[in-house]
Amino acid sequence: MKVAKTGNEAMAEAMRQINPDVVAAYPITPATEIVMIFSQFVADGLVDTEYVAVESEHSAMSACIGASAAGARVMTSTSSQGLALMYEMLYIAAGLRLPIVIGEVNRALSAPINIHGDHSDTMGARDSGWIQIFSENSQEAYDSMIQAILISERAKLPVMVTTDGFIISHCLEVIDMIPDSDVKRFIGEYKPERFLLDIKKPYTLGAIDLQDYYFEHKMQEAEAMKNSKKIIMDVAAEFNKSFGREYGFFEKYKLDDADIAIVCLGSAAGTTKVVVDELRAKGIKAGLLKPRVFRPFPYKEIASELSKVKAISVLDRSDTYSAYAGPVFTEITSALYSSNIQIPVNNYIYGLGGRDIGIADITKVFEELVGISKTKKVERLIGYIGVRE
Amino acid sequence: MKDIIEIRWHGRGGQGAKTAALLFAEAALATGKYIQGFPEYGPERMGAPVQAFNRLSDKPITLHCGITNPDFVVVLDPTLIKTVDVIAGLADTGAIIVNTEKTAAEMKKELNFNGKVFAINASKIAKECFGKEIPNTPMMGALVKVTKFLDINGVLEDTTKKLQKKFLHKPEIIDGNIKSIKRAYDEISG
């Protein structure tokens, strides 16, 4: 059914339909509404969830870890400083191989204080062992939250699904919601293989693990992330079969015959599609590759899709402060290099702290790419969009 | 007609600019359009100038940038005209609707705008219809008339449903608000 929902409402509705056993959360702008709406669902008796109001995000993730280890289906939501405060526990959730799902609203990190959308928070957790799924709009956020439950439980890895703060979290859009009973059927019941409250099969979780076994366990974790690729694609295929919406590691928009391409995550990809259409109408073969799954990073698949274009620009909504480039750029270029693909690529950092990126900004990037595709030379490797220099 | 119609609402914190933008978006969805409704999130205070935005289209909307060149501007508070550049980015082919006691001709002169200017005393309509000077719902009625994008009966029907949910225990508010939308739709001049 087509309804009007903001990104936050869409994520909260997905959580209602999933009906997790436990939600432990601490509200933070711009994700506050997700837990606010969800706690109303709890109060109204629309879900069976045990809602744990905690005193910080560190405690929220700790409670999620405890509940998940006990065998519950567990979800939470956070943003920015909240995710940063969870940092220590994020690694523990992944290391203990617990299927927790976070609805994460991308927001800038302090200082300076800023509540608006950029990807710094999520990128800070990119090596924490969590599967990361970015959303362009509310529909993708809603659909990915539902898929994330199955992905996390099958991969035995936690998943964060993100939207761009305010740009998507607070934008009312049309989404197609799935009937409650269909979501229930799709995700099924959670039957953990092992859980701490299973007194018939006691086991130890989170024991000390020094030189003798730590490495093996971490390698298994890395292996689980590799294996999650198939799981993500399987769940996407099941979702498409059930509900008719196609998902994968990334979305290609007019990329197959493109001469020039932009790679970017999240809401800016939607604006880029409009620019691609405008340029195509002028005979310029522009295209877009929008990574959806950033962890695991599908480097071979992305490199293969980009192999035929003549010039690429990677747009990053966060910086690494490494005196080098943005996190998406380094992944894309390393993917191309390790696949022996030599294409000129440049990088633009944009939209930090919610700075708007519009049609004119993206058009300029494509215009520069037209030049690079001819000269094969990148004059400026790393630039900034829409900032006073 | 353009593929996407863009609207900017100007109000003061507490006047319901965001609510009106969201209600308008939902009413448009009810008539089968694709929509976006979003507020500008600055520091929000009661009485401070605020903005809210709409996009409407017959096709899915993928644009997720701010609106800088709206087709229509709605001004909920006439005192904003002196402090905020309400016609910024509005082309001469566009239109502006102002909640004011003045006539459209007087307002056109004051705004120094070459496009269409519409005037409606929405505060008075609101006061008479539901006893409060909250001009957002009548301004929505005025916008429906000026944009010619939506069917007024569909809008009234959908908004009634939305308000019934929101004000379950205050039915008098619902009738008054609906009446104010219809009155502004009928009375707007320009």
Summed over residues and divided by their number, the pLDDT of chain A gives a mean of: 98
Radius of gyration of CA atoms of chain A, rounded to a whole number: 21 Å
Corresponding CATH superfamily of the largest domain in chain A: Thiamin diphosphate (ThDP)-binding fold, Pyr/PP domains
Strands across the major sheet of chain B, in which order? 2-3-1-4-5-6
How big a fraction of the residues of chain B is strand?
15-25%
**SS content category of chain A:** alpha/beta
Number of domains of chain B: 1
The string of secondary-structure elements of chain A, in order, is: EHEHEHEHHEHEHEEHHEEHEEHEHEHE
**Share of β-strand residues of chain A:** 15-25%
Helix content of chain A: 40-55%
CATH superfamily of chain B, by name, is Pyruvate-ferredoxin oxidoreductase, PFOR, domain III
Morphology call of chain A: globular
State the order of secondary-structure elements of chain B, H for helix, E for strand: EHEEEEHEHHHH
Tally of DSSP β-strands of chain A = 15
